[in-house]
Amino acid sequence: MKRAFLLAGLALLAAPLRADPAEDAQVYLDRIAALDDAGPQLNAVIAFNADAPELARQAQGTLLGGRTVLVKDNIETVEWPTTAGSLALAGNDTGRDAPLITRLRQAGGVVLGKTNLSEWANIRSTRSTSGWSAVGGQTRNPHATDRNACGSSSGSGAAVAAELSWAAIGTETDGSITCPASVNGIVGFKPTVGLVSRTHIVPISHSQDTAGPMARNVADAALLLNAIAGTDPADAATADADAHVTDFTAGLEAASLSGVRIGVMRKQVGDSAKVAAVFETALEDLRKAGAQLVEIDYDFPNELGRDEFQTLLFELREDLGAYLSGSPADIPIRSLADAIAFNQDNADREMPWFRQEIFVQAEASTDRRAYEAARRNALHLAGERGIDKLLHENDVAFLIAPTTGPAWPIDLVMGDAYEGSIGAGTLAAVSGYPHLSVPMGAVHGLPIGLSFIGARWEDAAILQAGAAYERARSASIPRPTFRRWQEQ
Fold first, then answer.
1. Rounded to 10 degrees, what is the CA torsion of 179, 180, 185, 190?
2. Entry pTM
3. Is 72 a catalytic residue?
4. Is 152 a catalytic residue?
5. Per residue in 418-451, pLDDT tens?
């Protein structure tokens, strides 16, 4: 029976999408049934809307034309509770849409369902397994079902790769859009912090949090960004968003890298010779497209990670507490301390694999002066002395590096085996600058992404660079296998 479901799912994936958005929506629902709920059981989707085909039909003629979008389950939608993966929020049925979801619907997007995530957006424990939540279980990577889909937007990344929806929305504090995009072989875009509203999203950090699009190509990601970007009076960070909103799809087809100076973050390639080889192929593609590659010599300062972590600890306690205390739903927790107590009281279900030492650290992080100093220094190192300096001193338009390494085996006992030496995404995360990951090849059949990082509000330019690279790319991008990894 399981093999029959798998074969049916693969046949669905081979079927071309139709011009009728209602038929598309039904195909996606069928794929969810065959590949997520049965067959390989990806556990990427935790709720879906059976009325999606009719909603898609009604949305024809709009910007998105009834295209289906899956939404990470830390973003409020009126249809379902917003759980952030925690049983404590299983009843967090607020009856409201986050403003970005309101924009999505107004643009003709259909909310197809909610995606699983790393519980509490992967900020609970240093020993966590990305893609696991008490609500949704373990999300699996469709390219190798025994390997990780990365966090915390793991469900969104896996769902888009498995073609369970046209696109998805993830959120990122540091790597949670770009990492799952990279290891699942899709496009993920972390916009400038402040371009997309964060209101009614379960938070970690008001300094670094943002939602962003995840799709199978840059053009689709840009189109979804068109729908969700804009100023929200309830989110002060978005005050200038409308001034920077444009048609992010404009110019993508004609975008050229000819004569463009690109900064190559050589030390952020990491220690893997196979990742380096994939990166070298991408560099050659960029050269053939006319780009001028400039070698960048950069070492991450030790205090950047230290001060980022201190910032996240302090803001987690305050920002999450504000969200929980303000939820109109009947929930059993109203503060981080309450969440810690809930997890302890329900340890058999909430903490069977890893604990909550980061939560405990955050609850004890009450020194505001130390926090403010840490945030100032982290922002200075990542922005002014980081991306801004590198762009200016090397006269380059943007920076590139591998996004991360290949997906690692799922290990609930030991936790993630994340390769921290690869990638430069922390600079974009801490500074709040845009970061795009585009597939650039594979290592032993496991996808690897190429990061494009630019200056604040240069979102459109970064998307154009990514689209130009897509056209120049010579490497083949693997298709999901929906089976365990096999040596190749």
1. -70
2. 0.96
3. yes
4. yes
5. 888 999 999 999 999 999 999 999 999 999 999 9
